Target: Sporulation protein YunB
Amino acid sequence: MALILLLLAAAFLLVERNLKPVILNMAEAKSTALATRLINEAMNEATDGRVDYADLMHVICDEAGRVSMVQANTVRMNEVATAVVNAAEERLQRMNQEQIGIPLGAAFGSQVLAGSGPVVPVKVVPVGGVQTEFHTEFETSGINQTRHKVYMTVTAWIRVVIPTQAREIEVSNNLLLAESIIVGSVPESFVGYNPDGDLLNLVP
Model:
């Protein structure tokens, strides 16, 4: 009898050791999808209908009317960044209320067992603050035209916790904030956004 119990205990430990990494990976995938959705909702909520190209960028022309410089409106960009961060952090704080679980049968990789067995609870906790970053892109668009796009990247960190194991992961999402067609070639200079408040002279 003792031998049978010992063998059962050994089998349980073997299955547990082999399945936990699989369960943690599945929990990470589910948590990443959830966090990405929440961040995307926050970005859309904070920017929808409130941001356009003229808000973020000033197009400066020379005496001949040619575009010579594109300058970032750092004040407005800081306002947008703050709104997105606040909305994202508020939504991510609600992740504890989300019911996430991995059916134990899903860890075996079988479609038959995918929804069976006890559910392993998954807890998702935000770690640190949300960060934002702006970046732009110039691309040729037709004859003598340049398309200028302004993107925002939002990055957050979350901790995925299952019984006896945890993992911290980074979640990022990109959003095209605004774009415009500039008549003429790519501007000779671009004065970009710096979160520290300084202006950077960059050549695209």
Notes: Strands lie at 57-61, 67-72, 100-103, 119-140, 145-162, 165-183, 189-192, 200-202. Residues 2-202 form one domain.
